[in-house]
């Protein structure tokens, strides 16, 4: 019996996705759990696993197609089986370009001598990474010929085009207009006038990820936020972390964030209203503690999810977060990497940040903004000394929880952060 694979719903607000690449070709054998295709959502390019075993009998959509959630994308059969014809709703086939600019709009005052534009209606083959870089650099894919397999546009093709554009933009105007003209004369500082700058505004098209972030942040900010800040004594944790990491290979060493994820997960067990979601007519208290961790990408921000973080050893949490962050940066995330968080952490500690507040990742009830571990003056029994401190701010949804409960959460969190051996039990 034939099985139909449909466009999965990879998030509560997902309505459609772009099938960017078939990993399994027609006629290929596929096992349950194998990567079948790569799908681009508003958040990321996701590797979609097959739910069936058999042979890929037919692709129902082409690469580059924008497909509604629930629409058929492939048929998998038993070897030698020929299924009955399967009807499919019309699918919008669009080139896999994310930039709306024309080929001549990628540079100011210049036309970039790129390869010939693809024939009208021809599908453009492009890797997800190359497409993302093209969007960030405002390079139109229609003007490129790929050097990858089958003429596919890959990262180096976009990098080369971006380098040409930048070279033209940065060249002296005289040289751009008249190639044989002499280089512009550099005037001494005192000869420059104090007139207005001739630098032009730059208009950067929004990527799908940045568009999704903008929409989600506006939606999330509709929740009535309130904020509670607490300062933690991090000297014991920093000492324990150093001792543990002496026994671990460099690529397996624990970060401060790993300790925080575990501490937050254990604290959330005691505060079900903060491990919850607001759902208009009810509050959903989640049974699992799935901690979302914000990962900074070149194109924006993505949250990866440490599932059941309250039940896992810290080394497992650390390894999973490292792997998910690496997949996110390579545009190879899996659906389970980015969905299902019940509470989030945004850590800017690596940027020497004293304190900040984060926007709740709706529909969650809270997010913890973690700042840098710093050496600061501390008064103890009337004596000023040097202490190791870290500030963290909880943003909470006032529809779900109140100030006293949020303050108590922050206080209880200190029992784990300031006595970190408890995280190893």
Structure commentary:
With 425 residues, this protein is α+β, with helices and mostly antiparallel strands. The protein folds into 3 domains: 3-93, OB fold (Dihydrolipoamide Acetyltransferase, E2P) (Beta Barrel), CATH 2.40.50.100; 103-190, no CATH class; 210-424, Chloramphenicol acetyltransferase-like domain (Chloramphenicol Acetyltransferase), CATH 3.30.559. It has 9 helices and 17 strands. A hairpin with a 4-residue loop joins strand 11 (276-278) and strand 12. Helix 6 (256-268) packs across helix 7 (314-329) and helix 6 crosses helix 9 (403-417).
CATH class of the largest domain equals Alpha Beta
- Biggest sheet character: 6 strands, mixed
What's the rounded overall pLDDT mean?
83
Query: What is the strand arrangement across the widest sheet?
Result: 10-17-16-15-13-14
- Give the second-level CATH assignment, the architecture of the largest domain: 2-Layer Sandwich
Cα distance, first to last residue?
50 Å
Give me the number of helical elements. 9
Kindly report the CATH topology of the largest domain: Chloramphenicol Acetyltransferase
Number of structural units classed as domains: 3
Q: Using the alpha-carbon principal axes, give the shape.
A: globular
Going by CATH, what is the homologous superfamily of the largest domain?
Chloramphenicol acetyltransferase-like domain
Low-confidence stretches: 92-121, 173-179
Radius of gyration: 26 Å
Broad structural category = alpha+beta
| Proportion of residues in extended strands | 15-25%
Q: How many strands in all?
A: 17
Helix and strand sequence: EEEEEEEEEHHHHEHHEEEEHHEEEH
Tell me which oligomeric state these chains represent.
single chain
Percentage of residues in helical conformation:
10-25%
